[in-house]
Design brief:
mainly alpha; globular; 7 helices; Globin-like; binds protoporphyrin IX containing FE; about 130 residues; about 0% strand
């Protein structure tokens, strides 16, 4: 039976299941492990807090994720597609399709904004007509 509602316990399950897949991914696993090393518990807690803020407006997440992702120099747009693929599969495994879609649409938007910051920094400012 798939979940039709989102709560903190289900977000916990999603985050743990999703990063289980990420850690097993031959491409993404090493990228995460290089930075997170033996702090996976802390990362998973951060991500549960993040997703409760995004999905339940808990307001508990206080981080600066753009800065953390801009610092990842070996990450490419293809990695984001892989990441989103795992996220789509994990959310579809756990949640009814309409609820899974609510997670995925947010993940896609955030992934888009990280990629603007990581790969198109200059263009972003050109579009906004801000002198560099
Ligand atoms: C290829 C795609 C991605 C890679 C390789 C990646 C990698 C990472 C890594 C290594 C960290 C730990 C950073 C640190 O502790 O210094 C991190 C943190 C984080 N990631 Fe990602 N990420 C990706 C996509 C995403 C997406 C799409 C989202 C949101 C939908 C996301 C949300 C976050 C958040 C909220 C943190 C915690 C930042 C903090 O410490 O406050 N990531 N990511």
């Amino acid at each position: 039976m798939k979940y039709s509602k989102v709560d903190a316990a289900k977000i916990h399950e999603l985050v743990h299941s999703f990063y289980g897949r990420i850690r097993n991914d031959q491409e993404l696993g090493p990228i995460f492990n290089d930075v997170i090393m033996d702090n996976w518990d802390r990362h998973l807690n951060t991500m549960v807090t993040f997703w409760t803020s995004v999905m339940l407006s808990s307001g508990l997440y206080k981080g600066t994720p753009m800065v953390k992702h801009v610092a990842l120099k070996n990450v490419t747009p293809a990695h984001f597609e892989l990441w989103l693929g795992h996220f789509r599969v994990t959310t579809a495994d756990l949640f009814e399709p309409d609820v899974a879609a609510e997670f995925v649409i947010r993940a896609e938007r955030i992934a888009e904004s990280f990629q603007l910051g990581m790969f198109h920094y200059e263009n972003q400012f050109k579009v906004a007509n801000v002198p560099l």
